[in-house]
Amino acid sequence: MKNTFVLLLALCGFVPFAQAQDLEGNAERGSKINDTCIGCHGIADYKSSFPQVYHVPAIGGQNPKYILAALEAYRKGDRKHPTMRAVAGSLSDQDIADLAAYYGAEYKAAAVPEVPALQPPAAVADLLTRGACASCHGANFAKPIDGSYPKIAGQYPDYLYAALTAYKTVGNPMVGRGNPIMAAQVQQFSSKELRALADYIGSLPGEVATVAQSRFR
Questions:
Q1: 101 within a domain of the structure (yes/no)
Q2: Structure confidence by residue, pLDDT tens digits, 147-194
């Protein structure tokens, strides 16, 4: 009876396809299908020029669930970046799961020096408190409370600033991020304050890195 019901749903077009978050990622396969990714994320100090000049984010060692969620958001258009949406749109759910698994494990190959955490200036400490940043991104902004949130400590400051301003952008068909929590948080800050937050968080020791590729395939 159950199988008959499922068959009827399938015939009517109501059976959803498996989504990437429901699939087990294969890091080895991810390492073999990341040719498009390494063109930006596999070059140390590489910068994007849209919508402004900033480092493309370091994603080696990032939470796999976050990478997966970000790619799905680009694919759905919740994140409005033409290049990333085109790339994400070319990927299957399994591709996304495999790439997330690969980049989540890639940090182990990176040599990132240990540096002590810096205490924020009083003004920045106030901004962090107002934004309740640690409530999601965790201790030292490197231990998120859920894997779907990114590690942001040690991320490129100019990328963090670009991301924060994207959450604040509305009504632009080419730029913006549709996360209601982050959108609500950033509205209270000026551009100068967002820059101060990005600069401080980016100065912290973190677990993300750009792992330079020895060759391009």
A1: yes
A2: 999 999 999 999 999 999 999 999 999 999 999 999 999 999 999 999
d(CA 216, CA 122): 45
| Distance, CA of 29 to CA of 108 (rounded, Å) | 17
Alpha carbon separation from 9 to 3, 4, 6, 16, 209 (Å, rounded)? 10, 9, 5, 10, 45
| 105 located within any domain | yes
CATH number at residue 187: 1.10.760.10
Q: Please calculate the CA angle 37-22-36 and round it to the nearest 5 degrees.
A: 10
Q: Does a structural domain hold residue 7? A: no
Provide the number of structural domains found in the chain. 1
Cα–Cα distance, 182 to 168 (Å, whole number): 8
Spatial distance between the Cα atoms of 2 and 197, rounded to a whole number of angstroms: 53
